[in-house]
Design a protein that fits this description.
Radius of gyration: 13 Å
Strand order of the largest sheet: 1-2-3-4
Low-confidence stretches: none
Strand content: 5-15%
Mean pLDDT: 91
Length: 124
């Protein structure tokens, strides 16, 4: 699930690459939802969800909700953007390069990703 911090169209791009269940906050009608409300929406889907976000503070600010709902987070690392890419180019590069790793993350895990590698596991 692509968070509202990233372009919702990336979900459509992922579906065209074979990730049939890729969706976005906008497509779920939650584009303007606050993070706790979005996490509730995701928990209500009753299936494992990977939330892809550029909100690097989410694991700290919403740790209780992330743990409670066993939300898996794939965070695009704000500190990893190369100077030759725009912000949107960076998001797309990281998401398309690592989507296969996102879906393989253990349930409830939190990882930060950059263009070149999966950077670090985040404890919540």
């Amino acid at each position: 699930m692509i968070d509202a911090t990233c372009p919702w169209r990336i979900a459509a791009e992922l579906r065209s690459r074979g990730y049939r269940t890729a969706t976005s906050a906008k497509e779920l009608g939650a584009a303007n939802a606050l993070d706790p409300d979005l996490l509730e929406v995701l928990a209500g889907l009753n299936e494992p969800v990977v939330l892809v976000t550029y909100d690097n503070k989410m694991p700290e600010e919403h740790a209780a909700e992330v743990r409670k709902h066993m939300i898996t987070l794939a965070i695009i690392d704000k500190d990893g953007q190369p100077p030759d890419l725009t912000e949107e180019e960076y998001w797309r590069e990281v998401i398309h390069r690592h989507v296969h790793k996102f879906v393989a993350q253990p349930l409830g895990s939190v990882w930060k990703y950059r263009c070149t590698n999966r950077r670090t596991r985040v404890r919540v």
